[in-house]
Amino acid sequence: MLLTILAEGAEASALGLTATGWVAVGVLIVFAIMLWTKVPKIIAEILDKQIAEIKHNLDEAANLRKEAEALKAEYEAKTAGAQAEIEALMFSAEKEAATLVEQAQADTKALIARRKKMAEEKIGAAERSAIAAVRAKAASAATKAAEDLIAARHDAAADKALVDKAIGDIGKTLN
Length: 175
Prior knowledge:
Blueprint: H1 2-8, H2 19-36, H3 39-153, H4 156-174
């Protein structure tokens, strides 16, 4: 008979339940055991912990983002301040360079004037020295020429007359 039932396509059953029924009963038993051992509560606690951890991570990420934005703003302000300081330094350096160029030009003009004056003074001193040397040579030449003329034109008798006259004149000037 069993063969005939199987042959006819009937399903086998035990305690009035077919294989599908027994699967359903098994699933219900598993769910009942899970409920009795509070598995959903454990799963909910695990999920709540994960949710709390994710929320904590999100809060920490938000805080880090705020800190990063604050640092970014601070560095942008510092960069802007540094740029303004660079521009101020460039302006003062250009101004100082212009002042130094003007001072150098003035110093150069003064140096040229001093050197020109010194050169003129040296030229004047050289001229005076040359004039004094020419005068000395002229005086020396005149003296030599006078000596030669006197020696040529005066003899001992003329010298004696001059000496006598000079002695006579001394007597007159003393009295």
